[in-house]
C-alpha cells in the first residue's frame, strides 16, 4: 500500500541538541549542501551540551601547538581506551579523535567562537593539556552559535515543539521517513536520510529501571527531554545496541539545588570529607566514578573543602557562578566556622585537614592520593555534594560514519545516530568515562554524520 506524505526533504534530524544541530548545519552546507528538516521536542528544556561546562577535548589543534603541547589523535585515542578499559569501538574512537582538531577549528573559524586552550582545567586520565573551552567555561555559547548559524541557512527548516514519533520503513527495511507531531496530529515526512540525535535515556525512569536499575532513583542532572525514544526507534527497525547499562555519574552535585561544583576544585588540591568530618577515599579519581563513592557515605553526602587559591582558578566557571548564586558555596575564615555551617565536629575537621596538609608537605598522602598541590590555608570554601546521573553511555551501534548497524554489522539503510542515541566511547562502567567524551561524541559525530550524509546524497546518481 502506498504511503501518503505530508512533507518531502533530503535529511531529517530528530533532536536539536549538540549532535543534531551539528549534523543539520553540516548536512546543509557540506559539499554543496542538501535540504534539512530539524525536529526539536522542546528547545526550552535545553540540552546536555548547554548544561555542561562546554569543554572540548581535541588533539593536534593550533592552540595546542601555540602552547608547545605535543599531542596527536593517537595519544588521545590511547588515553580514551585506557580509561574505558578498551571497551569502545576502536575504529569509531579513532575517527572521533582524528575529527577533534577540525571540530575545534571549525567552531573558531566558521562560528566565530573565541575558544581557548583551558590550561587551568585538569582532568583524570588525560596525559596532555587538550581541553578547549569558551572563556565563560560554559556550553551555552556554543549551542547558541550553532542555533544562530542554523537559522541563517535557507535550506533548513527548524521545527521547535515538534517531537518525532517514530521511523517509517519500506518492505525492504529501508528507512524512508519519520512520523512527527503531537498526539492526534501526527504527520509523515519523506526523506532520504534520518539522523537520530535525541540523546540518551537519563530522564526515563522506565528505561533506567530496565537497563540501569541502580540509578533509577538517583538525582538526574541532564536535560529532561532525554527519554530514549531514538534508541527505541532504532531497536524497532532492527538496530543493535551496545553498552546499554553504562552511565556517567557526577560526584559533585548539590543534593537539593542540583547545582554543581567544578571537579577542578578537588583535582587542584581540595578534599572531600563525610558527615563524620573524615576523608574517606582518595579524591583524585574521575568525577564519574566519584558519584558512587560519595553515594556510599552516610546519607550519600560529602562536603568538598578548598581554599582561596583554588577558588580563584575556577570562580569564573559557569557551574561555580551558578553555585555561588544559589548559595551552595560557603566561604569561611576558619575551619571552625566551616564546620559549624555544615554541622561537622570542628576538632575532627581540623584533624582531617591537618593530616592532609602534612601529607602534602611529605609528598605522601595517607589515602594514596597522587595529585598533591599545596596545603590548604584559610580562608576556606565548602559545598555539600552527592552523586548524580549525568547521562547514559549505551545506545545504537554505529560505524565510523555514524550509520546505525544491525547485529550482523550491516547498516540499517539511510539511518544515522549520534550523541547519546549512539553508543559512546566510555564502555559500560562509570569509571570508563574520560572527561569531555560526551561532547566529543555529540559534536564530533554530528559533524561526521552531517558531512557524510551530504556527500553521499550529492554523489548519488539522480
What is the fold's blueprint, element by element?
Layout: E1 7-8, E2 11-14, H1 18-29, E3 36-39, H2 48-51, E4 56-57, H3 62-66, H4 73-83, H5 90-111, E5 116-117, E6 131-133, H6 140-151, E7 156-159, E8 164-169, E9 175-180, E10 187-190, E11 193-196, H7 205-211, E12 219-220, H8 229-236, E13 241-242, E14 247-253, H9 264-267, E15 271-273, H10 287-295, E16 302-307, H11 308-314, H12 318-326, E17 329-332, H13 335-342, H14 346-362, E18 380-392, E19 395-396, E20 403-405, E21 411-417, H15 437-459
Parallel strand pairs: 1-10, 2-3, 2-11, 3-7, 11-21, 12-18
Antiparallel strand pairs: 4-6, 5-6, 8-9, 9-10, 13-19, 14-18, 15-16, 16-18, 17-18, 20-21
Summary of the model, kept short:
The chain is of the alpha/beta class and 462 residues long. 34% of the residues lie in helices and 19% in strands.
Q: Your description of this structure?
A:
There is one protein chain. With 462 residues, the protein is an alpha/beta fold. The chain has two domains: 307 residues, FAD/NAD(P)-binding domain (3-Layer(bba) Sandwich), CATH 3.50.50.60; 141 residues, Succinate dehydrogenase/fumarate reductase flavoprotein, catalytic domain (Flavocytochrome C3, Chain A, domain 1, Alpha-Beta Complex). 34% of the residues lie in helices and 19% in strands. The protein is built from 15 helices and 21 strands. The strands form five sheets. The protein has a six-stranded mixed β-sheet. Strands 12, 14, 15, 16, 17 and 18 form a six-stranded mixed β-sheet that branches. The protein is elongated, with a radius of gyration of 23 Å. The relative contact order is 0.20.
Amino acid at each position: 500500500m502506498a504511503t501518503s506524505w505530508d512533507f518531502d526533504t533530503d535529511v531529517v534530524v530528530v533532536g536539536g541538541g549538540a549532535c543534531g544541530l551539528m549534523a543539520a548545519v553540516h548536512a546543509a552546507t557540506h559539499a554543496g549542501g542538501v535540504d534539512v528538516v530539524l525536529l526539536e521536542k522542546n528547545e526550552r528544556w535545553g540540552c546536555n551540551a548547554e548544561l555542561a561546562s562546554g569543554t572540548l577535548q581535541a588533539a593536534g589543534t593550533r592552540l595546542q601547538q601555540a602552547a608547545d603541547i605535543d599531542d596527536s589523535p593517537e595519544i588521545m585515542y590511547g588515553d580514551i581506551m585506557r580509561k574505558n578499559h578498551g571497551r569502545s569501538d576502536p575504529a569509531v574512537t579513532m575517527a572521533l579523535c582524528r575529527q577533534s582538531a577540525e571540530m575545534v577549528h571549525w567552531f573558531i573559524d566558521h562560528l566565530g567562537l573565541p575558544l581557548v586552550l583551558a590550561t587551568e582545567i585538569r582532568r583524570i586520565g588525560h596525559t596532555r593539556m587538550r581541553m578547549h573551552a569558551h572563556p565563560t567555561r560554559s556550553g551555552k555559547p556554543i549551542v547558541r552559535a550553532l542555533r544562530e548559524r542554523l537559522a541563517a541557512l535557507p535550506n533548513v527548516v527548524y521545527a521547535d515543539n515538534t517531537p518525532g514519533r517514530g521511523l517509517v520503513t519500506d518492505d525492504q527495511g529501508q528507512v524512508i521517513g519519520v512520523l512527527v507531531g503531537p498526539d492526534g496530529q501526527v504527520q509523515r515526512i519523506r526523506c532520504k536520510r534520518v539522523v537520530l540525535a535525541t540523546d540518551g535515556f537519563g530522564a526515563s525512569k522506565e528505561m533506567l529501571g530496565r537497563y540501569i536499575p541502580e540509578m533509577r532513583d538517583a538525582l538526574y542532572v541532564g536535560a529532561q527531554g532525554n527519554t530514549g525514544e531514538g534508541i527505541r526507534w532504532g531497536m524497532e527497525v532492527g538496530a543493535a545496541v551496545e553498552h546499554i547499562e553504562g552511565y556517567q555519574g557526577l560526584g559533585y552535585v548539590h543534593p537539593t539545588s542540583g547545582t554543581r561544583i567544578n571537579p577542578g576544585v578537588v583535582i587542584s588540591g581540595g578534599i572531600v570529607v563525610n558527615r563524620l568530618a573524615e576523608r574517606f577515599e582518595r579524591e583524585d579519581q574521575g568525577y564519574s566514578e566519584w558519584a558512587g563513592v560519595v553515594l556510599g557515605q552516610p546519607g550519600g553526602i560529602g562536603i568538598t573543602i578548598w581554599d582561596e587559591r583554588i577558588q580563584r582558578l575556577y570562580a569564573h566557571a559557569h557551574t561555580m557562578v551558578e553555585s555561588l548564586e544559589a548559595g551552595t558555596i560557603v566561604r569561611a575564615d576558619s575551619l571552625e566556622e566551616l564546620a559549624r555551617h555544615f554541622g561537622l565536629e570542628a576538632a575532627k575537621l581540623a584533624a582531617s585537614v591537618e593530616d592532609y596538609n602534612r601529607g602534602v608537605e611529605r609528598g605522601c598522602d595517607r589515602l594514596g592520593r597522587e595529585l598533591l598541590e599545596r596545603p590548604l590555608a584559610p580562608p576556606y570554601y565548602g559545598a555539600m555534594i552527592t552523586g548524580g546521573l549525568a547521562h547514559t553511555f549505551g545506545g545504537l551501534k554505529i560505524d565510523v560514519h555514524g550509520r546505525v548497524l544491525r547485529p550482523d554489522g550491516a547498516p540499517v539503510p539511510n539511518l544515522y545516530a549520534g550523541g547519546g542515541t549512539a553508543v559512546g566511547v566510555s564502555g559500560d562502567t562509570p569509571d570508563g568515562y574520560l572527561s569531555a567524551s560526551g561532547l566529543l561524541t555529540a559534536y564530533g559525530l554530528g559533524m561526521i554524520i552531517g558531512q557524510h550524509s551530504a556527500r553521499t546524497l550529492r554523489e548519488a546518481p539522480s
